[in-house]
Design a protein that fits this description.
Elements: H1 4-81, H2 84-93, H3 100-114, E1 117-126, E2 134-144, H4 148-160, E3 165-173, E4 178-188
Antiparallel strand pairs: 1-2, 2-4, 3-4
Amino acid sequence: MATDNQKKMNSLNLFLNRYFNIFLVVLVIIILAAAYFLVLRPKFQETMGIIQNSLEEQQRLYVGQQKKLVNLQAITAVYKQISPEDLKKFDGILPDNYPSEALFGELEEIIEQSGFLLSAVSVSREEAGPSSPTGRLNINLSLGAVDYSGLKTLIRKLENNLRLFDIRDLSFSPSDETLALTITTYYYSKK
């Protein structure tokens, strides 16, 4: 006959045979639940946080771009209201890459109106660089028959001229009535 140990083992085997499927299902559910709470859920929450931050950043960028668009539309509306005559004046202030001959004519007119003698002119061009589309023309002038009041008048005319002029260097000799003047003017280079 069967011993007590064998009876216990037999009853354990019967119990396991009868409830093994349920036991296995419960064990799988526990493992899946643990995997969900320990691995999947934190990763899911982290991913949702990253997606939410990305959406908020995209929304901020969108609002910024909308503001830029509104500003550009306002600028366009103002630009359309500018008359063609005024646009020509603006082009005179900072013209496109214009020929030096036109500049010579303008300077000659200013100098002759002041009553001076133009003895020498030299021009050097500084092309626009990659960081700025604005180029420069450096003009060295040598003038004769210049007095102090005429010098003040010439400076005032250069300052009030429609074209931008910067006086870089000025050497005036009252005794010789000569003036050496270095000025810079600017142009817009469309590259």
